[in-house]
Specification:
Length: 595
């Protein structure tokens, strides 16, 4: 069920930080005499209303140039997405294509809209009215004027026009008339051709100006502070790869009644038992009916559910056991692949673990370089990657690679504890499993961190920033990300030569091996030190409602494979002894009955 949120009389102070200044309200539904849903146990976060500003031009009349219409404002995407905002020009829709914190972009209709308001009534100035609507909110923006709008005066008479009743011309006059008509036709054709050329030239100039204006806008926003996404948006996109995330965090078949909440809390209690959690993951991992995307989703959902600072240590213990288990069961030729994100739930969990614990580090140390690369790619949109990387872009790529693939003296003291802690954990797993091939451990580290996280941020900066890259920019970033992946892979393919970075990539490939050795030589990070690091960054963790939704989605997977999970619990001596199989079967039966 979907409904528009009602107006709430709660004063929200002006925004100072995107992750704060929000208030919570209780959610409930009035549905006849059903009391259970009048006050749900899921809080609803209230943030400041968006503000859309009228056009700044005189009379609020915007003479449109270029492809997109730009509308300015404040706090535009705190609680809204592109699909939830409607822009109308007269009675025609202006299709919203991007929505940032301070700006909305939409594409007006091809044909010039009529000079009316949304209800169809004529406007006083004869121009179509521009309106933005978000839920219950409605904003008057101004009027839309097409640049080629022209008006002709009815009843105009051309000088020399012959009046009715004149005599029929003779042959000479007829020939002269034909010649005149031919000349007029020729002149008309020439004028049309010239106008078309001028229009194409004008459109190209307009597009260039718009492109530069957008770049200037981004540079201004950079000076004022980078447009980082808040933590919740970052995790939803990064952990769930956008589409899976949007679906996973917006749909739940469990509902949120008190009874359902009790079921979810009981299931969460089972997850915090290591024996049960391992059996659940191992069972889902080996289900042939599960797709790669589903396994990836399960890994992300588990990490979100258990992401409290104390649970992150618990998660690392789970990962150690899963990795040791995978190494034991895989043959020697496949051991290096056990942490590939698309290969296993464990790989997805580890990449999500890094994404959560390194949010502040990325924001502080790498974010500016990633955003500057996006600006350069936007400025050069439409050109080939080979040409782009001959200029400044070759320099926001080499610098980014240096930041991600080197460890100098300056950064040793501030090197993020989660990377050191988890890399040491992977080394211990390899040692305990009798693996002395450094290539295997390098592959684990690169797949989980460099390929799973760094390359993803390179390819999709919109996961970390409130931006909307064009298709051309996305294609260019995808090539650059693939080149970065090649640095972390066993062999170099053709991508490095296409973008003329082959020589630099060979150097970085050597540096990657060096930095892995340098990290290994750093002082060990104890569990207490990691706990302190996580406590210092606890403000970035998702709220209870997000963890609840992730837990609800996990329950759907558990219900879908409940027979297989129950049988596995019975085969595990520890779970059988603790009665987990019986508890799980009873809980699932109650949930199914509740549905």
């Amino acid at each position: 069920m979907e409904c528009i949120s009602p107006p709430v009389d709660i004063s929200v102070p002006p925004r100072k930080n995107r992750n704060t200044d929000a208030k919570e309200a209780t959610v409930g539904f009035i549905m006849d005499a059903v009391e259970e849903v009048r006050q749900l146990r899921l809080d609803f976060e209230i943030v400041a209303n968006p503000e859309y500003y009228p056009f700044a031009e005189e009379g609020h009349i915007r003479e449109h140039q270029g492809e997109q219409l730009v509308i300015q404002g404040k706090d535009l995407n705190l609680a809204s997405t592109e699909s939830e905002v409607t822009v109308t020009i007269g009675q025609e829709e202006c299709r919203v294509v991007s929505l940032s914190d301070v700006q909305l972009n939409c594409i007006p209709p091809d044909d010039e809209p009529k000079g009316v308001n949304k209800s169809g009534s004529p406007t006083e100035n004869g121009l179509p009215e521009v309106i933005v609507e978000v839920g219950n909110l409605k904003f008057f923006i101004g009027y839309f004027k097409h640049p080629l709008t022209s008006h002709t005066t009815p009843g105009h008479t051309t000088p020399g026009h012959t009046t009715p009743g004149h005599t029929t011309p003779g042959p000479v006059g007829l020939i002269g008339g034909l010649v005149t008509a031919f000349v007029l036709l020729l002149v008309t054709v020439v004028v049309v051709i010239v106008r078309c050329v001028q229009k194409r030239t004008l459109n190209r100039r307009i597009a260039a100006v718009e492109n530069r204006m957008e770049t200037v806008g981004m540079e201004v926003r950079t000076e004022q502070g980078l447009p980082f996404s808040n933590y919740s948006k970052y995790i939803a996109k990064m952990v769930y790869d956008l589409n899976i995330g949007n679906k996973g965090l917006s749909e739940s078949s469990q509902g949120n009644t008190d009874q359902a909440m009790d079921y979810l809390e009981n299931f969460y209690s089972l997850l915090t038992n290591k024996s049960f959690c391992l059996v659940l993951i191992r069972t889902l991992e080996h289900q042939r009916r599960m797709t790669k995307d589903q396994k990836k989703s399960v890994g992300g959902l588990l990490t979100i559910t258990l992401q409290k600072e104390k649970s992150m240590i618990y998660l690392s213990e789970i990962l150690k056991d899963l990795l040791a288990d995978a190494v034991t069961k895989e043959n020697k030729t496949k051991r290096e692949n056990v942490l590939t994100r698309d290969y296993s739930i464990a790989g997805s969990m580890l990449t999500a673990w890094f994404a959560i614990t390194l949010y502040s580090y990325i924001k502080t140390n790498i974010g500016e370089s990633i955003y500057e690369l996006f600006i350069v790619m936007t400025t050069n949109a439409g050109t080939e990657p080979r040409d782009i990387l001959r200029g400044p872009a070759k320099e926001k790529v080499i610098r980014i690679c240096e930041e991600m693939l080197t460890l100098d003296e300056q950064h040793r003291s501030s090197f993020p504890a989660p990377i050191k802690y988890m890399f040491d954990t992977l080394d211990r797993v390899a040692e305990n499993s009798g693996i002395d091939d450094r290539y295997v451990t390098e592959r684990w580290k690169c797949d989980s961190l460099h390929v799973g996280l760094w390359a993803k941020i390179l390819q999709c900066p919109e996961y970390f920033f409130d931006i909307s890259p064009s298709d051309d920019v996305k294609r260019g970033l995808e090539v650059i990300a693939q080149a970065f992946i090649e640095i972390c892979s066993e062999s170099m393919n053709s991508v490095s030569e296409i973008i003329e970075l082959h020589e630099e990539m060979l150097i970085f490939k050597t540096q990657l091996q060096t930095v892995i050795d340098d990290i290994k030589a750093l002082p060990s990070v104890s569990e207490d030190a990691l706990k302190q690091y996580l406590e210092d960054h606890a403000q970035h963790q998702s709220g209870a409602s997000e963890r609840l939704l992730a837990l609800s989605k996990l329950v759907e997977f558990a219900i879908g494979f409940n027979d297989e999970i129950a049988e596995a619990l019975l085969r595990d001596e520890k779970c059988k002894q603790d009665g987990h199989a019986a508890m799980f079967k009873k809980l699932i039966s109650s949930m199914i009955e509740h549905q």
